[in-house]
Amino acid sequence: MILVRRGASRAAEVQCKNNLKQIGLALWNYHDTYSAFPAARDAGHSWRIRVLPFMWSSPQYSVYDFDQAWNAKNNITIDTRPLPSKSDELVVYGNPYGPPCDVNDPHVTSYLLIVGHDAFAHPNQTRKQGDISDGLENTIAAGEVASSDVHWLSPVDLELNTMSFAINKGPQSISSCHPSGPAVLFCDGAVFRINPAIDAEIVRGMCTISGGEQISRDSLIAEGLLVP
What we know:
Blueprint: H1 6-34, H2 47-50, H3 60-63, H4 73-76, E1 111-115, E2 140-144, E3 158-159, E4 183-186, E5 191-194, H5 200-207, H6 217-222, E6 226-227
Parallel strand pairs: 1-3
Antiparallel strand pairs: 1-2, 2-4, 4-5, 5-6
């Protein structure tokens, strides 16, 4: 995996963490409004479009048609065609690194939720805060994925039953071009870099919401396996 140069790497690291923090804030704002986190792909539509109104003021959500497929012409062009009062492109879902170490496609997202019946995001049902019995601070909600080909509107994320829990093991794993490891968003909104040397079983435990694993985020920070 090609690493980014030091100066660009630092800027991309900050942008990436800020992007995930914005996503975390939007998920919590959604929860405050609907008393639950959004389903990953309810009725074939991604959580990313559902939390869009909780990120910034944009006409894109109001133009999106939930009665059509996510990739119908009306929907898939909402970030490219002119819209009334459209102020900016969707950088928060993008990729902070770009070539040579990653893709350069503004429509592709690097940020995927962990999805499954025992993961932060249920495939097609909402999830309440109280369902996360392993602790918000010990459970990963979303992770960075390098070389992702997932369109930001696509109802595709990291599936708990099929993802690799080893870090930097391809597009079905939490992964990054950044030398200190990929960024992850915990359910309490905190964002950390995860050391690629971390044991895969620990990652597995952090990706479940009710597995009962004895995991302490503070201990992982002290061991250098999570980096603020």
